[in-house]
Specification:
- The chain is of the alpha/beta class and about 350 residues long.
- The chain has a domain of about 220 residues: NAD(P)-binding Rossmann-like Domain (Rossmann fold, 3-Layer(aba) Sandwich), CATH 3.40.50.
- It is built from 10 helices and 14 strands.
- α3 packs parallel to α4.
- The longest helix is centred in the N-terminal third of the chain and has 22 residues.
């Protein structure tokens, strides 16, 4: 098939393109003009066409979708110099432009795959994220944070509305937090997610909203000695941190299943991974692996959740492969300059498929 991938040179898009090429597909990569510095990231691959355009420009979108058999819509405003109106125009109207072009000119489209986010589960007004039970697809929060979370949800609503109203064969994936292994280690080669210093830097100049929060902050400051160590982060209730991540290779696996399995049509899936991090279990392991000490402390913001992946596993046969050890092994190999099965973020990858 000829497949359009919006955001095809991004951290997820490039690794998806690699996997689609391995499956024998031809790719058109749609790149935002602001990302033109990496527009040639996939030039070393055969069967990849890169086009530059803006989702807000209907003519650009019409040219991008022309003649394709399937579409992955990954591109979005995220973490950039955008205001709320621009987020809505790019993530909302940009998605609408694609859907309208499909409706007008691609009556036989095989699949439209929309990339959403786990963030639509986060409850507006809560400090952090704490879920007693695994999160399943029906647990979308009533209200979402602006601008990214809400505008990505608007795109999902548009995608599913066009499926039911106009018959566009749509599949939605809500990504758990994505790990690209090349970004997992800091400049010293340590897994920064579990280090004490970033937590200390975050809270050293803050004042707690309550006496309990202030006590947590004072404890964090008192435990910092100036030497890096790992931290078993505890929630305000004393329960250790827990968070589910997804390696970019598992994201790509799930996305490919989205066009290969008919059961995917008309469904929303949480795309989680094998990297379920439990701080009380993983920090002692990391301390031994990297020969560092560790401490534990309560942190004012809650972080405790995992996903129920029954739906994506049972309907699509999805089986994530990459846990903490796999991520670390790949990250360390990349740091040594070795070839891996990951296309690094922001780097032109030399290879052919």
């Amino acid at each position: 098939m000829k497949i359009l991938v919006t955001g095809g040179t991004g951290r997820i898009g490039a690794n998806l393109v690699k996997r689609l090429l391995e499956k024998g597909h031809d790719i058109r990569s749609f790149v935002y003009p602001g990302d033109s510095s990496r527009a040639d990231k996939l030039d070393s691959y055969d069967r990849v066409e890169t086009v530059v355009g803006d989702l807000r420009n209907l003519d650009d979108v019409k040219q991008a979708v022309k003649g394709v058999d399937a579409i992955y819509h990954l591109a979005a405003a995220f973490g950039g110099p955008f205001d709320n109106r621009q987020y809505l125009n790019i993530n909302g109207m940009g998605t609408l432009n694609i859907l309208e072009c499909i409706r007008e000119s691609l009556p036989n489209l095989h699949r439209f795959v929309y990339a959403c986010t786990e963030a639509i589960y986060w409850r507006l007004g809560e400090k952090g994220r704490f879920f007693e039970e695994p999160i399943s697809e029906e647990m979308v929060s009533r209200y979402k944070h602006m601008p990214y979370f809400l505008t990505k949800w608007i795109g999902e609503e548009l995608a599913m509305t066009y499926h039911y109203q106009y018959g566009i064969p749509t599949t939605v994936f809500r990504f758990a937090t994505v790990i690209e292994p090349g970004e997992f280690l800091n400049a010293d080669g340590l897994p920064q997610l579990f280090l004490f210093n970033p937590v200390y830097e975050r809270y050293k100049d803050q004042t707690g909203d309550t006496p309990e929060e202030q006590e947590m902050i004072e404890t964090i400051k008192s435990l910092w000695t100036g030497e890096e160590k790992f931290l078993i982060s505890l929630n305000p209730n004393g329960c250790p941190y827990k968070q589910e991540f997804t390696d970019v290779r598992d994201i790509a696996q799930g996305l490919v299943l989205g066009i290969e399995r008919e059961e995917a049509i008309g469904e929303e899936f949480t795309l989680g991974g094998a990297a379920l991090f439990r701080w009380e279990r993983d920090v002692p392991y990391l301390a031994e692996r990297y020969n560092l000490d560790y401490v534990e402390a309560k942190v004012p913001s809650s972080n405790h959740f995992e996903f129920n992946l029954h739906k994506i596993k049972s309907l699509l046969g999805y089986e994530p492969q990459h846990d903490l050890r796999s991520v670390l092994d790949t990250a360390e190999a990349m740091r040594r300059g070795e070839s891996t099965d990951v296309i690094p973020t922001g780097i032109r990858f030399e290879g052919k498929v």
